[in-house]
UniProtKB/TrEMBL annotation, chains A, B:
Keywords: DNA-binding, Transcription, Transcription regulation. It comes from Streptosporangium saharense. This is AcrR family transcriptional regulator. GO terms for molecular function: DNA-binding transcription factor activity; transcription cis-regulatory region binding. Residues 14-74 form the HTH tetR-type domain. Coiled coil: none annotated.
Length: 197, 197
DNA sequence: CCCACAGATTGCGTGCCACGCATATAGTGC
DNA sequence: GCACTATATGCGTGGCACGCAATCTGTGGG
């Protein structure tokens, strides 16, 4: 049962990590990010402050943990798409998967409007680039160390999703995030499809 | 002479800001970013520690100030290109301008390999996006609040330059940064030229 | 020439936080 | 039941951001 025991531990760690992250996000939304104290986050999550920073090394990281995990999943979603699917379709599908359930408007707006969280949010999006690049490289069969195409496309796609989030927030709220993301990705399609004829 | 006096003050502020930023970068390269103390940066720049954080609110911000200013200039460079130049050419030209003089390899490598600085570096690149987007929007005559194209392209271009930096660092050093950047931007050209027929 | 004023620098005090170290606890395999 | 490892926690230390108030500096007016 070694593996299962390890799984148990991993699950537990993930659970507390998510608990802390959720607590941090909730408090940041309620009180505003700069006012949140580490002690409060830890209390809310039911752990010691010392334990809190076994998981996160800054308040920003804890608040944006949700975004980070989302971004990671977006990259992995592309890897999981069927290999015979055209690259452009696979990318759009992976992004749309990642967009469900709809992001939390209030939380996203809080993050976007807080300069201190901006860097962390950008890091979260950047985290999606490596798996995206790997998936693209594998799909079109090039070496990402030699050819810059996968990295460039990954960065462009991540950027398009980020821009979609911004426009979705500023919009009138009647368009779903997935639709906005589809529109932004459309602008990239000529570049994406060019390399996968 | 009111205006000139104001100019003088602005120049002075800019000078001390650059002095502090340069000192921070130099010390970070020499000793490694986490070992640099605020007191040392301030001493090196000839100001008080208290003055240092009138200009920067974190060590990371000071160390990456040079990158931030660079990124800003890249955005403004596009605005300054002749209006009749095709968008794709103007973008490439602006990036190449921004690439001279060649970035400092050691400094860039230090920043790229320090996780704490990663967020700040990403913020620096993101700063270039707004002027880039504005320039693109003006050039093709669309409203950036309605049309996502300028923002998406700005993010893609900034991402391509960032990727170029990474590949340039990992390369054998015989290719200039400008050349690598040209290659990465080439991958975006189909998307860029599509909207400016 | 002196004064008033605004902007910039600086010193000091306060509160917050990241992190190393040592310890307690819990869950696992033998 | 026992040894072991991973995790949680307490405590202490050092560093840093920032508010506040005093000081310094350069500028323009009387």
């Amino acid at each position: 049962m070694n593996e299962e025991a390890q799984d148990m531990r991993i699950r537990n760690k993930r659970a507390t990590r998510e608990a802390i992250g959720a607590a941090a996000l909730r408090l940041a939304i309620e009180q505003g990010s700069p006012l949140v104290r580490v002690y409060d986050i830890a209390s809310e999550a039911g752990v010691s402050p010392r334990t809190y920073n076994n998981y996160f090394s800054s308040r920003e990281e804890a608040i944006c943990a949700f975004q980070s995990d989302r971004a990671r999943k977006m990259g992995q979603a592309l890897l999981a798409r069927p290999a015979d699917e055209p690259l452009a379709e696979a990318v759009v599908a992976a992004v749309v998967e990642h967009a469900t359930p709809e992001p939390d408007r209030v939380g996203l707006r809080m993050i976007m409007s807080t300069p201190e969280l901006e860097g962390e949010a950008l890091k979260a999006f950047a985290m999606a680039e490596e798996p995206l690049s790997a998936a693209i490289a594998e799909r079109i069969g090039v070496d990402p160390a030699r050819d810059t195409f996968p990295d460039v496309m990954a960065a462009a796609v991540a950027g398009a999703v980020r821009v979609a989030g911004r426009h979705w927030l500023n919009g009138d709220g009647r368009e779903s995030f997935a639709d906005v993301a589809r529109r932004t990705l459309t602008h990239l399609l000529p570049a994406i499809t060019r390399a996968a004829p």
